[in-house]
Sequence to fold (357 residues):
Amino acid sequence: MRFGLIGCGRIAKNHLKAAVANGLDVVALCDSSAEALADKAAFLLELGAAEPRLYSDHNEMLAHEQLVLVSICTPSGQHAVTALDCLAADCNLIIEKPIALSLADADAIIELSEQRGLKVCACHQNRFNKAIQEIRAALEAGRFGRLLYGTAHIRWSRNRNYYQQAPWRGTWAGDGGALMNQCIHDIDLLRWMMGDEIDEVFAYTDRQLHDYLEAEDLGLALIRFKNGSYGVIEGTTNIYPANLEETLCLFGSTGTAKAGGSSVNRIEHWLFADDSDGNAVIENANEKHDNVYGLGHTPLYADVIEAITQDRLPYIDARAGRNALELVLAIYKSSRDGVPVKLPLKDFSTADMIGRF
Fold:
């Protein structure tokens, strides 16, 4: 299966490792930076792959390579326009989070992919973590009983040097703040676990320490789901002196589970009324790694390849990506306007937050 990658920045190596591990024919890389292209091309050779062709313009790459699958790892503000160009060229897609920065753009991606019969996966790879899969299986088996509430805590640290590496970070036009960039994976997990359907969101956001950014470095939100459960989100990049944790907790009438670690990659608490398998689950579900990206890219790629060959939706499809985006944008809107926000949210964008701070 002919594969190309657009955007050779921070996350690209995870995608290339997953592509090679799944037997994709990585024929082309694209980036505006010659240095970034050379670095990722050399990395591909280290992985044992053939030397790729290099492009500085993604439309040129699309015109010449007849790609079946493309991964988009560009700055967030470029995701939508790049995705629409790829879909117009009949390419299936894996789009790094967030799928877009506006609901209108997310809807355009969904509409065009459905018109052309193409698969689009939103790259929320933490759904494939063993710990998350254990929690999801318990949820689908009804072991939590009545779902009461869930929490997502992302207590991370980002300094000036991180933002200076890429000027689009922390801008409303190109990124958003801590919630859209660092926290959206856990926000995706919380919404997915709690039944997806949201009634209302109320939130505060602030820019406490990063006065050189346009967007927030702290977000606090309360969510009321349509199934009667509630959600709590706490996301920040202000933790001193380094990342502390990312956790997801689910509380039900007959079960309690907590996933933690650097990327919700281990079970920290597991107790259900129906049995006492906690120690076994905690031992078997824990994954060890040395970064916040986790190990989910490889199974995510395997799923997308299978979705293409079997003509089914990916496990994490474009609508899942839109759901995560919608929740972050609802938090932004509530914090801006100082009122609860009802969902579904009509079109909103990070651009509507310009001047917030």
Observations:
- The two ends are 46 Å apart (CA to CA).
- The mean pLDDT is 96.
- The chain has twelve helices and 14 strands.
- The first strand starts at residue 2 and ends at 6.
